[in-house]
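input
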Amino acid sequence: MSSEIDSSTLLSRASQLIDLARKAGADAADAVVVRSRSQSVSVRLGKVEGTESSESDDFSLRVFIGKRVASVSANPGFDLQALAERAVAMAKVSPEDPFACLADEASLSKSYPDLQLLDTTEVSSEMLREASLAAEAAALAVKGVTNSSGAGASAGMGGLVLVTSHGFEGSYMASRFGHSVSVIAGEGTGMERDYDFDSRLYYAELDDPAEIGRRAGERVIKRINPRQVPTGKDVTVIFDPRVARGFVGHIAGAINGAAVARKSSFLRDKMGQPVLKSGLSITDDPLIVRGPSSRPFDGEGVSGERLVMIEDGVLKHWFLSTSTARELGLETNGRGVRGGTSVSPSSTNLALEPGDIAPEDLIRSVGNGFYVTELIGHGVNMITGEYSRGATGFWIENGELTFPVSEVTIASNLKEMFMRLTPANDIDRKFGVAAPTFAIEGMTLAGR
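output
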């Protein structure tokens, strides 16, 4: 384990790569190693269906010559000098990019905190197998569950090694453990499927596999014999936290600086204006200790800080990397993420901050409406904000969840939905995107 965590050799190779790139003619450069170690086991109906184990250290070199930039990547064992010379040769014939550059030296992290992202617990394949079997067995033991789609368990770690030509050297690793199960209830055309899972940085903090299985079984039997409901134009829709997290992801996409620069966000002209209902805020914090998406520095060596992206309903920040910030005439806020050989902005620990009402009371306040537990399709236009998704869930009648509902569509425009959103107080921050249950008034529901 210690040899897998120790990044000194990779830092040394990355530094050599930078030196060779400068000698080959690069004005500036950075080298990145993306580390990954993982193992997983999947079972179905009490038998192991698959085991996987992988590890990789993927190198990338980015070089700059004036306003020209090129990137190359390689696996371990490559020839350092050949890779550096290849990158420089590519940069010399690349078109100019006025915005591509390293982060300003003044913005580089000089030191960074220990965020306790790595759990060194050794998890064997036998432990993963036993956890998968326990989750599936508990789900199948729930009365009404008729079959299994399978269960799985995984353990792994990943991280980043970064060296730049203007003085940054750093590395970090983060662990990740997970359990999941998916089961079926009903027979023939009346079959329904549902699932449950848990994912954590620390193995000891994972939910018990049997508890995960029981929850999956109880969820799926509630979905048996769904009905359709009449079409309505002024329906209050409540989003279960599972789907609420995805919805908050749409907000993150709309305030991503890259989308703003491309003019592909419906919020591109809304900086400093209300985009959520008054009183609502969205935060992003890369420095949460043991946070699911925490990082001590970003993909350019810049340490981010906690930002209130939307404060009291008003848009305050975009997610910015250095090049995106330059294009918008701004400065990076440490949200650059490596994706292959490129850098683009992204959120870290993103949260729609909770309200002060319990989810049960929020449901009661609705009277009649629709509680969504699953969304289907990709009917979201991030340029116009138009939103139309297939949905399943439960009908709310007289403030109570009554019968399961399927084969309906919910629709509106994201700009209007944001302004009609009321959050509950049940946020779970173990996810990189966290959101409580919330209600959105005035949606169109297309049913029978």
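quick obs: The CA atoms of residues 92 and 241 lie 50 Å apart.
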